[in-house]
């Protein structure tokens, strides 16, 4: 069996397989001989993932920059600290930056690489499921600012992405499930066969199911390639996300142990599937299959009436709204998404109520 498979070629190759089997020597010629390599890791990927790639000959002398793990790392101050380290290391433009981690590392690492000296080459080696099928692909890089997510950033593509599902072995189960919610979303907006495959497996099985990761990567890269700067079609990736973002912000403010983004997405998909039935004629039986599947994987999150009032306030401020209309991406059947649906607040509230009835 081939140990490395190229999933997609353009605008940059994405490979899946055993990372040590990749021919980094050839890669060195492709990007005209990088003189230095800097690997950016967080506390966890330093322990669990770095040892594996340090065995690759062209990475052996790499310098390491370690960041704290978690969303709070995505700050402009941390980017400044990275630039200070880059400066001390005398990095030239033919340096290769390797982002080894989840979406936090690819977002800040890609941003830091792109701004420094007008752009260093960088590659992504995603180590969370979410980063493998979503965050590492699509060229969005950046940091949070003044309480706003991804407020500062730039579009910039990596040279290449390597996906090695071995890294998932050490990923906490909660993180794995959160990433799985985005695979569910990819299937629902674009890939009916992926949906059929998902129904037959458990999230833990993705370790052995390169086919599922490949299809999910394919969905994301196809969408971003047809609309790299998010003018229209890329918005289909927002399915489940308008409500998810509000629940995520609400949870961050109110819970000691807030929901992960993907956990909020799972709830958002249920609510927006409900909206899809009412507004887009999604078949009720299909919707039921989606509700049953998602509620079997994710436990109930308590949302009372007061919470719904707060959630609606947050949704009103969503970046995606235009001219006072609340804007949603919905599906009309599995694999088919429609952007720019305007939904009344009453119906949004109803969909969130509906979510809570699923678990009783
Ligand atoms: N740029 C984009 O298009 C895009 C898309 C989606 C999400 N994002 C961003 O991605 C971020 C979320 O990414 P994430 O979910 O990967 O979170 P993350 O990077 O914070 O990783 C989650 C946790 O898992 C740990 N971890 C990572 N790999 C591990 C491994 N193999 N073994 C053990 N522990 C490991 C990390 O240290 C961290 O504690 C958010 O900041 C979000 O805004 C960006
Ligand atoms: Zn998401």
Derived structural class = alpha/beta
The tally of domains stands at: 2
Uncertain stretches = none
CATH architecture of the largest domain: Up-down Bundle
**Sheet with most strands:** 4 strands, parallel
- Helix count? 14
Q: Strand fraction band?
A: 15-25%
- What order do the helices and strands follow? EEHEHHEHEHEHEEEHHHHHHHEEH
Give me the secondary-structure topology.
Layout: E1 4-8, E2 14-17, H1 24-30, E3 37-42, H2 43-48, H3 50-53, E4 63-67, H4 76-88, E5 96-101, H5 103-115, E6 121-126, H6 129-135, E7 140-145, E8 148-155, E9 161-163, H7 173-190, H8 192-199, H9 210-226, H10 241-254, H11 261-280, H12 284-297, H13 305-316, E10 327-333, E11 336-342, H14 345-357
This protein binds nicotinamide-adenine-dinucleotide and zinc ion.
Zinc ion is lined by residues 182, 241, 261, 265.
Protein model, in words:
The structure is a single chain. The chain has 360 residues and is of the alpha/beta class. It has 2 domains: 4-171, 3-Layer(aba) Sandwich (Rossmann fold); 174-357, Dehydroquinate synthase-like - alpha domain (Dehydroquinate synthase-like, alpha domain, Up-down Bundle). The chain is built from 14 helices and 11 strands. It has a 4-stranded parallel sheet. It has a 3-stranded mixed sheet with strand order 1-2-9. A hairpin with a 2-residue loop joins strand 10 (327-333) and strand 11. Helix 11 runs antiparallel to helix 12 (284-297). The longest helix has 20 residues, at 261-280. The termini are far apart. The model has no long low-confidence stretch (mean pLDDT 93). Bound molecules: nicotinamide-adenine-dinucleotide and zinc ion (ZN). Residues 42, 44-45, 48-49, 69-71, 74, 101-105, 107, 127-128, 130-131, 134-135, 138, 140, 149-150, 167, 170-171, 175 line the site of nicotinamide-adenine-dinucleotide. Nicotinamide-adenine-dinucleotide (NAD) binds at residues 42, 44-45, 48-49, 69-71, 74, 101-105, 107, 127-128, 130-131, 134-135, 138, 140, 149-150, 167, 170-171, 175.
């Amino acid at each position: 069996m081939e140990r490395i498979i190229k999933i997609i070629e353009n605008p940059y190759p994405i490979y899946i397989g055993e990372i040590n089997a990749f021919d980094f020597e050839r890669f060195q010629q492709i990007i005209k001989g990088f003189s230095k390599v800097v690997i950016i890791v967080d506390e966890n990927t330093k322990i669990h993932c770095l040892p594996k790639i340090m065995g690759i000959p062209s990475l052996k002398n790499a310098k390491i920059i370690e960041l704290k793990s978690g969303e709070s790392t995505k700050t402009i101050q941390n980017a400044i600290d990275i630039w200070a380290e880059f400066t001390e290391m005398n990095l030239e433009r033919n340096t290769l930056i390797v982002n080894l981690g989840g979406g936090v590392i690819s977002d800040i690492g890609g941003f830091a690489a792109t701004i420094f000296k007008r752009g260093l080459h960088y590659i992504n080696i995603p180590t969370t499921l979410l980063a493998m099928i979503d965050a590492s692909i699509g060229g969005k890089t950046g940091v949070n600012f003044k309480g706003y997510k991804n407020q500062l950033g730039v579009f910039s593509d990596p040279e290449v992405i390597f996906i090695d599902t071995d890294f998932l072995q050490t990923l906490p189960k909660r993180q794995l499930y959160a990433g799985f919610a985005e695979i569910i979303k990819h299937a629902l907006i674009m890939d009916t066969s992926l949906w059929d495959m998902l129904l037959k497996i458990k999230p833990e099985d993705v370790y052995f199911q390169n086919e599922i990761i490949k299809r999910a990567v394919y969905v994301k890269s196809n969408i971003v390639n047809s609309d790299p700067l998010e003018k229209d079609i890329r918005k289909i990736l927002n399915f489940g996300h308008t409500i998810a973002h509000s629940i995520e912000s609400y949870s961050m403010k109110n819970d000691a142990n807030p929901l992960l983004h993907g956990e909020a997405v799972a709830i958002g998909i249920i609510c927006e599937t409900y909206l899809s039935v009412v507004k887009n004629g999604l078949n009720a039986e299909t919707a039921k299959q989606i509700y049953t599947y998602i509620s079997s994987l994710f436990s109930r999150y308590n949302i009372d009436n007061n919470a719904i009032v707060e959630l609606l306030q947050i949704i009103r401020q969503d970046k995606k709204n235009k001219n006072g209309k609340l804007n949603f991406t919905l599906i009309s059947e599995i694999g088919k998404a429609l952007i720019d649906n305007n939904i009344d607040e009453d119906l949004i509230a109803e969909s969130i109520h509906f979510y809570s009835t699923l678990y009783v």
